[in-house]
TrEMBL record, chain A:
Encoding gene, per UniProt annotation: eutB
Protein name: Ethanolamine ammonia-lyase large subunit
GO biological process: amino acid metabolic process; ethanolamine catabolic process
Keywords: Bacterial microcompartment, Cobalamin, Cobalt, Lyase
Enzyme class: lyase
Catalysed reactions listed for this entry: ethanolamine = acetaldehyde + NH4(+)
High-level lineage: Bacteria, Pseudomonadati, Bacteroidota, Sphingobacteriia, Sphingobacteriales
Top-level taxon in the UniProt lineage: Bacteria
TrEMBL record, chain B:
Reaction catalyzed: ethanolamine = acetaldehyde + NH4(+)
This protein's name: Ethanolamine ammonia-lyase small subunit
BP-aspect Gene Ontology terms: amino acid metabolic process; ethanolamine catabolic process
Record keywords: Bacterial microcompartment, Cobalamin, Cobalt, Lyase
GO MF annotation terms: cobalamin binding; ethanolamine ammonia-lyase activity
Classification via InterPro entries: EutC, EutC_C, EutC_N
EC number(s) from the headed UniProt entry: 4.3.1.7
Residues the record lists as binding adenosylcob(III)alamin: V157, E178, C207
Compartments, record wording: Bacterial microcompartment
Function: Catalyzes the deamination of various vicinal amino-alcohols to oxo compounds. Allows this organism to utilize ethanolamine as the sole source of nitrogen and carbon in the presence of external vitamin B12.
């Protein structure tokens, strides 16, 4: 039982799960689930009560029972109790102040990655303002490798997302070339296929891999299909660089996605065995997003942000190259407007980085959300300041296959320009060699007889 | 004027014939030129207006008079559009007055048409009559019995299960405005549910999507729907099993 009294009203919270939910900044998904605070006062009372909870309580009181959920077992069994000694004396509130202190630098933060549980990260984030989330995330540095180096300070990457509603190869190639000539694609060239059929996915993989090899592009490719499809294709000798999967923070959610830790283990081993990375073997690409647990009816009464961070425990098991929170895709019943989308994205980015994940964000919205390009510009800029590893690159922000709006090739260039950020170093060298950018990283006038263009015909 | 030059000099414009994606849009500095920026804004404005558009019940009522069917006006439990967007569960439930009204119309019909605003009332306002104008005479000729037509405000797909159940219809064909995209804000979907009753999920349904003048046009849409109605009634099922065997739906 946790409680706090404001004037004469005693606010009681029966368990940690309830306390976390009531302390969450408001979002529609928690209201839909019926777990949010009922007044502003109750929310702050919960936050004050949460600030006094010692971090070590989180190791004793699980929010979803150990026996019922393999994610809980993963969280508890993989906890690094040695590293935890550094912060075990802190309360959640004390942890927030400690994270922001000048003594807590990148190296110190790196040393606690494996001892912060998702629930601790979610708890502390609920006590933090947006600027706190940015300030701490900015101190973290999470670097990953495959054919290039992603996540270095001062660098900022993009996933080139050349989707097409019917997977038409020429249509996809046209968007891909457009993107490459705008300097996009250093995180990955990744297609959401219109169908998950193994044959169609194989053809798309071959399409990107051929272009990559022909132009010797230091990047990696991915077709975002289900892990079972990817495993099947690996067995058939397909050119799989990265293994993709959507994940959620509870076992129930993941069963609804048709996955389990055992299946992910198998997919990870299969992808590693290909040894296609030239400078590193971070081979996994995960996508997440607040609300998927409620949507899958697998939330156990846990608030959507805490559920989200529990998913990161899965991601961290597989040392991924990229983790992407697709923040505004799910719709207004979970994140209603620009304010809620921005807050959720900063929380996800912070919590992921604190757990040692290479976080990127799909800065996005659907047309029935109360959001527009101005909200995305705000979020994009905040994430650039916070040191986000990557965003999406989509022609003119408009994904004609998934029917939502994300960030454009131009958006990434804007961010690089106003914040002085560079692409992944290997990819930047390639862009210079191709005459796409100059040695200061500025986009050059495009040569109409550029090989990437002429190759197309 | 500046913009025209940007467009003309963009060597990427030759790629445009291969995709409807917004490629080759040029740049000023690193930013999107004004013309393309405003085009995007206009597309988003159409989508936003569609989300807040209202079911034209009078217009639909008038246009459908020639069908000689009773037309009922129903409402979900979501009172406003804001509530509707935040609480999808309320949009799936009929309000009490509507449920009460339907009790007088239990008909043993073969088919019930349920017309729902969904996320774009515009889509339904514009596509319902042109579709039914082709379809209903075909069904009449085939001797199928049609229930009163229901117009539903602030509804989602699953609301049709309750309505169809109260009407005691064998099959519901629910026409609903789909979530507007930037390329189309007037796209209507048709959902089929055999033996509707509350509590069914998406795997019990079939869907034909993108019904609009620039997408799947009304005549071929009516043909597809007519075919599926016959298949569903003949085989007494809808959903995954029907899709797998009919080979009609992509």
């Amino acid at each position: 039982m946790y409680q706090y009294t404001v004037r004469d009203i005693v606010y009681r919270f029966s368990d940690l799960k309830t306390l976390l939910a009531k302390a969450s900044p408001f979002r529609t998904g928690d209201a839909l689930a019926g777990v949010c605070a009922e007044s502003y006062e109750e929310r702050v009372a919960a936050q004050i009560a949460l600030a006094d909870v010692p971090l070590n309580f989180f190791l004793n009181e699980t929010i979803i029972p150990y026996e019922q959920d393999e994610i809980t077992r993963l969280i508890i069994d993989s906890h690094d109790s040695g590293a935890f000694k550094l912060i075990s004396h802190l309360t959640v509130g004390g942890f927030r102040d400690w994270l922001l202190s000048d003594e807590t630098d990148a190296l110190v933060l790196k040393s606690i990655e494996a001892c912060v549980t998702p629930e601790m990260a979610a708890a502390v984030s609920k006590l933090m303002r947006n600027q706190d989330l940015i300030a701490v995330a900015k101190k973290c540095e999470v670097i990953t490798h495959f054919r290039n180096t992603i996540g270095l300070k001062g660098h900022f990457s993009t996933r080139l997302q050349p989707n097409h509603p019917t997977d038409d190869h020429k249509g996809i190639a046209a968007s891909m070339i457009d993107g490459l000539l705008y300097g996009s694609g250093d995180a990955v060239i990744g297609i959401n296929p219109a169908t998950d059929s193994p044959a169609a996915v194989m053809n798309l993989l071959t399409l990107i891999d051929t272009v990559r090899q022909q132009f010797d592009i230091p990047t990696q490719s991915c077709v975002l299909s289900h892990v079972t499809t990817t495993i099947e294709l690996i067995n058939k000798g397909a050119p799989v660089d990265l293994c993709f999967q959507s994940i959620g923070g509870t076992e129930l959610t993941n069963s609804s996605f048709g996955i389990s830790l055992a299946l992910l283990d198998e997919a990870y081993e299969a992808t590693l065995s290909l040894k296609r990375g030239t400078i590193g073997q971070n081979v996994m690409y995960f996508e997440t997003g607040q609300g998927s647990e409620l949507s899958a009816n697998g939330h156990h009464g846990v608030d959507q942000q805490t559920c989200e961070v529990r998913g990161y425990a899965i991601a961290r098991r597989y040392k991924p190259l990229l983790v992407n929170t697709v923040v505004g895709f799910i719709g207004p019943e979970y994140l209603y407007d620009g304010k809620q989308i921005i807050r959720a994205a900063l929380e996800d980015h912070f919590c992921g980085k604190l757990l040692g994940l290479p976080m990127g964000v799909d800065v996005c919205y659907t047309n029935h959300a109360e959001a527009d390009q101005d909200d995305m510009d705000n979020l994009l800029t905040l994430l650039g300041v916070a040191g986000c590893n990557f965003i999406m690159g989509i022609p003119g922000s408009d994904d004609i296959m998934l029917n939502y709006q994300s960030t454009s090739f131009h958006d990434a260039l804007y961010l690089r320009k106003v914040l002085g950020l560079r692409p992944a170093p290997e990819f930047e060298q390639w862009l210079i060699k191709q005459g796409i950018v100059d040695d200061r990283g500025e986009l050059m006038q495009l040569n109409p007889s550029h090989k990437l263009l002429t190759h197309f015909y | 004027m500046v913009n025209k030059e940007i467009e003309k000099t963009d060597p990427l414009s030759s790629l445009k014939e291969f995709t409807a994606a917004r490629i080759a849009i040029g740049r000023t500095g690193t930013s999107i030129p004004i013309k393309q920026s405003l085009e995007f804004k206009l597309a988003h404005a159409h989508a936003r207006d569609a989300v807040y558009s209202v079911l034209d019940t009078d217009g639909l009522l008038n246009s459908m008079q020639p069908f000689n069917l009773p037309i009922l006006h129903l409402h979900s439990k979501a009172l406003t559009r804001h509530k509707y967007l935040k609480r999808p569960d309320l949009g799936r439930q009929l309000n009490e007055e509507s449920a009460e009204l339907l009790k007088d119309y239990s008909t043993n019909a073969d088919i019930a048409f349920i017309i729902v605003d969904g996320l774009s009332a515009t889509a339904v306002n514009e596509n319902t009559y042109p579709l039914l104008e082709v379809l209903i005479p075909q069904l009449n000729r085939a001797g199928l019995k049609i229930a009163p037509i229901c117009l539903v405000e602030q509804g989602r797909v699953a609301i049709g299960d309750h309505i169809g159940h109260l009407l005691n219809a064998k099959l519901t064909v629910l026409l609903i405005g789909e979530r507007p995209g930037l390329s189309a804000a007037d796209s209507m979907g048709a959902y089929f549910t055999y033996m509707p009753k509350p509590g069914l999920t998406d795997e019990s349904r079939n869907c034909i999507s993108n019904i609009r003048p620039q997408g799947l046009t009304h005549k071929p849409a009516a043909e597809k729907i007519f075919y599926l109605i016959n298949e569903a009634l003949k085989r007494k099922l809808s959903g995954v099993a029907l899709k797998d065997n009919a080979g009609l739906l992509e």
